[in-house]
Amino acid sequence: MAMDPELVQQAMGMAGAVACLGLSAAGSAFGTGFAATAAVGAWKKCYAQNKPAPFILLGLVGAPITQTLYGMILMFLMFGKAQLGLPLLILGIFAGLGIGMSAFFQGRAAAAACDAQAETGQGLTNYFGAIGIVETVAIFTMVFALIAITKLGV
């Protein structure tokens, strides 16, 4: 039984779109998990020392979740170009990986920031600045992937 080549191309393109979202979301899951674990530990230290537990740590915990949104934006746009096939599959895998790794390492930075903020009560602006720089990798990846998608359609 022969497969329709156009159907195969469409399936590969859709797989690339789903891979982009999946890899981005996996990075967000790891990143938020690292940060959440550190926040819980930091709050425990505060409670043990009868210090107020800083609620702002939730902002640090949530930072890596935005990469899932970037993957979703790319996925929806990639669905519209699914007929491009293999090139879109490759683009989706590598864009998702880049975005996901940004979330992964953003979570690592957020974990360190949770510990430092709870211990010292200082430096929050610096911590968010560093986390924002890591976020920029995901934004650049999304934008450059969008440009690549438009160039593939030429």
What do you see in this structure?
The chain is mainly alpha-helical and 154 residues long. Helix content is 83%, strand content 0%. It is built from 5 helices and no strands. The protein is elongated and about 70 Å long.
CATH class: Mainly Alpha
CATH architecture field = Up-down Bundle
Number of strands: 0
Tally of domains: 1
Oligomer: single chain
Let me know the CATH homologous superfamily: lithium bound rotor ring of v- atpase
Main sheet attributes: strand count, strand direction, barrel closure: none
| Proportion of residues in helical segments | over 70%
Mean pLDDT: 95
What shape does the CA trace take?
elongated
Strand content: under 5%
Query: What name is given to the CATH topology?
Result: Four Helix Bundle (Hemerythrin (Met), subunit A)
The helix count comes to 5
How far is it from the N-terminal to the C-terminal residue, by CA? 32 Å
Uncertain runs with pLDDT below 50, 5 residues or more?
none
What is the string of helix and strand elements?
A: HHHHH
What does the radius of gyration come to?
19 Å
Helix/strand structural class: mainly alpha
